[in-house]
Structure formats: C-alpha cells, structure tokens
Fold:
Amino acid sequence: MVDQVYKPQEIEKKWQTYWEEKDIYRTPDKNDKPKFYALSMFPYPSGRLHMGHVRNYTITDVIARYKKMTGHNVLHPIGWDAFGLPAENAAMKSKKPPAEWTLNNIDYMKQQLKTLGLSFDWNREICTCLPDYYKWTQWLFLELYKAGLAYKKEAAVNWCPDCQTVLANEQVENGCCWRCSSEVTKKNLAQWFFKITDYAEQLLKDLDKLPGWPEKVKIMQENWIGKSTGSELRFPVKGMKDITIPVFTTRPDTVFGVTAMVLAPEYPLVPDLTTDEYRQSVEAYIERSKKLSEIERTSTERDKTGVPTGGYVINPFNNQEVPIWIADYALLDYGTGAVMMVPGHDTRDFEFARKFNLPIIEVIRNPEKKDDSLLEEAYIEPGIMVNSGEFSGLPSEEGKTKVTQWAQEKAYGRKKVQYKLRDWLVSRQRYWGAPIPVVYCDTCGTQPVKDKDLPVLLPEDIDFSVTSDSLIKSSSSFINTKCPKCGGKATRETDTMDTFVCSSWYYFRYIDPENDEKIFDSNKVNYWMNVDQYVGGIEHAILHLMYSRFFTKALRDRGLINADEPFENLLTQGMVLKDGAKMSKSKGNTVDPDDIFKRYGADTARLFILSDSPPDRDLDWSDEGVEGCFKYLSRIWRLFGLVEDKISLNVTEPDINTLNDLEKNLLRETHKAIFGITKDIEQEFQFNTVVSKTRELVNAIYAYLNNKKDFSETDKKALSFAMRNLIKLLAPLVPHLADELWAIAGGEDSIHLSKWPEYNKELLIADVIEIVVQVNGKVRDKLQLSSDLPREELEKKALESDKVKKFLNGKQPVKVIVVPNKLVNVVVK
Ligand code: ANZ
Ligand code: ZN
Structure:
C-alpha cells in the first residue's frame, strides 16, 4: 500500500543503493546496439557541488537515461579535473599536501553526485592528479614533442620582486601580488609551448563540420583564431646594410601614406636602432611598458603613448625616410611586431599622429570627397588611390594586389595570412600539476624521459609550509636524476603542465580507463568517438574546446584515432541565477544543493532545474518554484495511491475500438504525451516543455478518475496503460520516484532498463467533431472527422460522401464553401 505522504528521503537512498549493487549503469566496451556517448564537463574538486554542477549533470543525465531507454549503448562517465592552483593555495594555508585536500574534496563531492541520482558508470572514474592518469598526460606531451609540436622558448611570466616568485595570472590582483601587494613585473623565462598554430587553418575550417554546435561558440572560436589576409612588406633600415624591418599589413594599398614605423618596445632590434640622443627616453619607455598587460596595451580607450628612437627606415615605394618609433600598442607577438603607421586611414594611427605631430597623408580618396582638403579623421573605407605614384587612380581593392605584386617582384614583400591564435604556453612554475617529462644533461642537452620510465612522479618530500612557486624545486630527490641517453648526471624539468593539458584528452581515457599498457585501445576509441553530446558551461567555449580539438587532430595525425573532431554536438547550459544575478559566494546569493536534497530530495531538485527554462537559457532560482515541483511530485505520488489496486504493468495496450469514450480519450492523451515528450527531447532537449507535458498527462488521468466509479477489465487496461507510460516518461527526469512507482505497480527490474514507449500516430488525432455537409444549402450528411482538418481535406471528404454523390447526380459542383470545423456546402446548378 502506498504511504499517503511522499517521502523522497526514504525512497532515494534505497534506489541509489540498488542501482549501485546491481551495477546497472556499467557500460560494456561494445555491444550490438548503436552507441551514444553523453559527456558532462568534468568538475574541479573545489569542495562542494554548486548549482551550476547540479544543472550540468542533470541535463546530461536525462539525455543519457533517455538514450538508454531508446535502445542505445550509452557511455556516461565522470571524473575529476584535479590539478591546479586552489589545491596548492589550500596546502600553503593548512600546511598539508595538496593531494590530501583534493582527494578529500573528491570524496565529498562524489557522495553528492550519488545523492543526485546520476547514472554515471563509476567503474570508469578518472582523476587527473593520480599517477595512472598523469602518466598518459606525460606520454602525450612526449608524443607532441617527438612530432615537433612541443618546443621551448622564452616568454614573459608575472614576477613578484618581493616574494621572488612567479605568479599565475589569477594571483595578480590589479597589477599587484596577491600576497604582499607589491607591484608585479614581467620576467622572461624559457618555457614549453605546444604548436597549436600549426593547426590554425584546420581548426578554423573544420568549424564547418560542426552543425551541432551553437553558432555563438563557433563565432568565438573563429575570432580567437583570428585569420587576416594581407601582405608582409619590408622596409630597409637607413644606414644599416642588408637589415630590413618587415611589417604585416592588411592594407598594402596605403603604403604611400606611411609616416612612421612603429615597433613593439620589446622588438629585439630596438637597442641597435636607437641613437644616443634618444637612448634614455627609449629605455625608460621600455621599462614602463613592461608593467602593462596586453589588454591595457591594446585598449582603444587609453591615450596613445610612444617615443622616437632616432632611427629611420626607407619606404621602398617612394624612397622617403620614415622615422622609427616604439609604442606599446604594437605587440611583439602579432605579425612581425612592427607596424607601418598610416594615420590617414587607421583610427589608432590617426590619434597617434595628431598627438605627436606626425604628418597625415591622404592616399585613399573617399569617392564622395571632391578636393584635397585635410582629413578630419581617418578614412578607413575603400576608395581610390591618390598621392601614390604610379598606383594613383586604382581602386583600393585592386591596389592591394598591385602593390603586393610590385613588392614581390622587387623582393620587398609577399602575400601573407596571419592568425591571432598563438602557440599554447603549457609551462607552469607550480607544484600541483603533471611534471613535464624532460631531463637536462650537460652533455646531451634536452632529453625526453623514456616511455618505460613514466610516470615522472610528483615528489612528496616537500615542506608545504613554505610559501613559494617552486615547491617542486625544493625536492633534491626529484631534481637530480640520470640522463636517459648517456646515464650521466642530469636535472629534471621542474615546470608542470597547465591543467588544460589534462582536460584536453580526458574523454578518450574514459573509454579505456584501466589500460596500463597504452593510453587507450584505438579500436575502443574508434567505436565510441565522437562524443555524441557534450554539455557544459559557455566559459569553456574558447580555450578548453580549442585545445581538445587540437589534441584530437594531433592524435589523428599520429595515427592513434580516426576522429577529426571530438564533440559532435555541444550544449552550453545557461547559468543558475538568484534574483537575476549569477550565484556566487562573494554575493552571498548561493543555494547549497545539500540543503535542497535534504529538504525536498534530489528528484525535486532535478525537476526544478529542468522545468524552469530550456537548458541553454539562464535559470532563475526560486524557492516557490522548488516548492511547486515538490507538490507536483507529491501529487503524482497520491495518484498512485488512488489507482494502485486497479493497475497492472504487464497488461497489453487495449484496442481503442473496444473502449468507451472516457477510456478512448485517456488512451489518446497518453499517446499525445508520448509523442510530444519524445519530440521535445529529440529536438533540442526542451526539458521545460517535457515537464509541462507530463503535467498535462497527470491532469488528464486525474480528470478521468473524477468521472469514473466502476472499472471494467478493459477500463483497467486503459488506466494501466496510461500509468505505465506516465512512469516511463518521468523516468529520465525523476529516476528515484519512477523506480519506486514502477516497483509498487509490480514492475520488474529497474525502470531504467525498460524500453521507452512508442506512440501511435493514428491516435494522436485529438478530437473528433461533427461536420455538417450540405448540398445547395440543405443538410445531406454528417461526417465524424478529426478537428482542425485543412479546407482541401474537408472539401475532399465531403465530395466523397455517398449521400452527397447521390444528390450531385454526376454533376460537377460550381462552388464549394468550407467553414472549418463546422460545415461544407456544395453548390451545383
Ligand atoms: C597598415 C595599415 C593601414 C593597417 C591602415 C590598417 C589600416 P588585423 O586585421 O587585426 O590582422 N598591426 C600589424 N601588426 C601589429 C602588431 N604587432 N601590433 C599592433 N598592430 C599591428 O590587423 C592588421 C593591422 O594591424 C595591420 O594592418 C597593422 O596595421 C596592424 F589604413 O597596416 B595595418
Ligand atoms: Zn646525457
């Protein structure tokens, strides 16, 4: 007998234990069903789940459960993105190893995920900070190294001169050190990079292969790759034989308007170009620009700054001398690090020239401008070339080609494609990451660690109470090693890898998590990839997705996998808001999932998260909304109490023709719900409307019961059919309640192993109505037809009627008047 009151706390624990004991979510490596790989972005073990997690995992869980019921072999794994700075910060505070903090957090959050009733295959759990995982992260590093895709070069890091440590970007607050508040400067260090730029064109082009990705994400990726087509032009330096300065420009047509050459302050040639007269101001300027971030340097808001060097280049097009300046708006690592300044046709250059009294020359004429008057502002549109020697008179687009051709013939330039995408800096001067598996030997130089010596374990003989970026360097047992080549004394690389490296390939490891011989079995990966549905936050729209796409392509080119792209379909879920603002600790507007689980149960939490808005939209947390969901589930619970003694799950669907009107309608409502819910899940995962359609069915069943006293055997069949399908439709949404009701109603096994219901198209026709058919205004027939038939259909049906045919007597009607849902009048002469 069903208890009067819905008590999720009792139900949910029971089913979680049952699922775990029966291991019903274990995924076979392969079977003959179609595969479906459902993936959530794995969590960082920060300590507790937040509502964003709850939303992310609930969405993927509903998809995974639905796919399982529709006959797929579903892979739905979970793991931990477990390296990174917060653990290290916690370690310095608590003076305990970061591993301890991390693994404790994982324990707690794992139990929270289980409380939420997610259908993860826990047998495949991975954790990026454990040696059996990071061994393969290191192996991948070496694969890239061997392929020439990992290399070392100097790059700037944030440096705190007081603490004498490198700071991660997150540790710089308003340009100051987070610990001691002294001003942060830049320092050059040799660091490891991955050559993602080799894949720039493919990463751009293959976006076309991703129709299942949100357009906005593809645009963000496209902008990040930032392809520009233009030219490289070279300007000889005055007084320095054979030295030229190349520039990248998208406007070679403006080359006659160059009035300065602007170099990035860090440009290597600057000290050589600078004359004694300007040396002091140049050096001072370089020092100042070191303190600025790239964002500050390129901001259009900031006043332009710069200083002349005293040097000159020659513009090869008109042999004029052009002064060389340095200015921080020129970036060292874009294009060539040098800009030909054309104030007449570039807004930024115009401001610069105004400020420093440099000449502004008009070389592209606005077709609407009729005279030589001075430019009031930069003219940046296309036009006609003027003041440009032999090129004058050409339209600017044509000029671009002609100027580049001229430069190419005279060896002063060529066409060039430029990308904003930079190589990926993977070195981190931190302890809590995967050590870069490289050794330095005085004799043999840089040597990769041999595969058989992986993993390079993180040292544990560390004093975590010391405040330092280079804790790893304090372990002499780690640093001192033997050269893999000559066996002589050598030292280890002490940089660890960016955690984005760990998270760029984890979805491969889920497929073969226990393999200790290989990173994975390629056959298994080729069976499961691509991920059919990836779900996660928009904050990963650029870096994580770009790096994962890069890794996939690099692994494919190494012959390890077939996939070109990792993620077939991507859903970026909206945020969880409270009173219109993003939930955050600092705002104090968070809702703790644990409180909700305790008070209402996981099913209510899941239902609320799903019912409020479509998954890709923001969701506003509301206590009344949650309360409403709990009441709805209680209502379903009571419904079962009412019908428990009348239903049986293993009856077959009754033939509609054997039913009375009430039952007919109930059967139709059931099919309507199956149809609508299936469609809403298949198209865009519209779970909010799915939930409202379950409510409609529940209402229909209550309405049916209100009109009913005695139940014949066929009546019971119709009711059983409705109830059975109601539970199935609810199963992916509220898995615990569904299994409980299934069991109460005598269902076998778990409902999650049962089949998703199918609808009968013919029974979807909602209402049958009576259409009056007249001939010349006199009623001749009455037809029982489904409502909302189109005009043509009504006309056809009327003319097919035997009674009407009789009155037409073979004559063609001159006119047919149709009043939808009411009447058809056939007019004959
Ligand atoms: C001359 C010129 C004239 C330019 C003109 C524009 C308009 P995108 O489209 O983003 O690729 N540039 C080149 N290298 C630079 C660097 N290292 N730092 C800052 N600016 C740089 O931009 C290409 C344009 O950005 C280039 O075309 C160059 O300015 C500038 F009427 O060259 B242009
Ligand atoms: Zn050696």
Summary: The first strand starts at residue 35 and ends at 40.
